[in-house]
Amino acid sequence: QVQLVESGGGSVQAGGSLRLSCLASGRTFSGYVMGWFRQPPGKEREFVAHITWSFGSTGYADSVKGRFTISRDNAKNTVYLQMNSLKPEDTAVYYCAARRISTREYEHWGQGTQVTVSS
Questions:
Q1: Is 17 within 8 Å of 33 (Cβ atoms)?
Q2: Predicted confidence band at 56 (pLDDT cuts at 50, 70, 90)?
Q3: Are 55 and 71 in contact, with CB atoms under 8 Å apart?
Q4: Which of 56, 70, 72, 94 could tie 49 with a disulfide, CB 3.0–4.6 Å?
Q5: Mean predicted lDDT score pLDDT of the chain
Q6: If we measure between CA atoms, which residue out of 12, 37, 11, 30 comes closest to residue 111?
Q7: Cβ atoms < 10 Å from Cβ of 93
Q8: Which whole number is the average pLDDT over 24-42?
Q9: How far apart are CA 27 and CA 59, in angstroms?
Q10: Contact (CB, 8 A) for 74 and 12
Q11: Contact at 8 Å (CB) between 53 and 72?
């Protein structure tokens, strides 16, 4: 059974940094894409970044390019989202997700972690 557990959320002032972690378990994730999504208050969930587990290829939403970095540690089965130069509009619940590289839909989701950025 796949489990994704996020941690590292919290409150920070604008311009600050946070690092989110996603501990993945329940299977080997080679051939998977790991993603970070977020849901701001009152808005729909949106894509933030993704990384392929095997090759480390990455992709980012335009709104976070140059500020956020996604990475993974295969030995620890953990995916990270380093968030720098945070803005109030980055305030959201952040979710880790996983899908097979051959599919478009993310099939596994974590419970989410709150990030609050104050001005």
A1: no
A2: very high
A3: no
A4: 70
A5: 97
A6: 37
A7: 18
A8: 95
A9: 23
A10: no
A11: yes
